[in-house]
Design brief:
Shape: elongated
Helix content: 55-70%
Low-confidence stretches: none
Number of strands: 3
Structural class: mainly alpha
Strand content: 5-15%
Strand order of the largest sheet: 1-3-2
CATH architecture of the largest domain: Orthogonal Bundle
Order of helices and strands: HHEHHEEH
Mean pLDDT: 82
Distance between the termini: 52 Å
Number of domains: 2
CATH class of the largest domain: Mainly Alpha
């Protein structure tokens, strides 16, 4: 049974995504016919951001420590320090070696690390 005070849940998300799917389909039809796109108010940049950053995270919500190290260009010791200092929180731990992190939680960490690397 769902929590009556919770407004958003998987059913709500399903309905919203279905509505988005319908509108995006109409926009694609308008685009194919060379018409002005009025069915969807998203820019190409917003569509790319949604398709590249958000939707894939819904289907694969976890990252391994190795993926974080690769994407953030950091060493094992830097990753361990970030975990111990609370910059990153492990969602699950299997034994001593396998840390799994929620992608939503590490996106800002990776952006911050990449930004710090480019400014130095």
């Amino acid at each position: 049974m769902s929590n009556p005070r919770r407004v958003f849940n998987f059913r709500t998300m399903q309905m919203m995504l279905q509505a988005i799917t319908d509108q995006v389909g109409r926009a694609a039809d308008q685009e194919e016919r060379g018409e002005k796109i009025t069915a969807c108010g998203m820019s190409n940049e917003q569509i790319a951001d949604l398709c590249e950053d958000y939707l894939p995270n819904l289907f694969n919500p976890y990252m391994t420590a190795g993926e974080i190290k690769k994407e953030a260009h950091i060493s094992e010791s830097t990753l361990r320090r970030a975990i111990s200092e609370g910059e990153l929180e492990s969602a699950e731990k299997a034994g001593d070696h396998a840390h799994f992190f929620k992608k939503w939680d590490v996106r800002e960490f990776i952006k911050k690390r990449l930004k710090k690397r480019h400014t130095n």
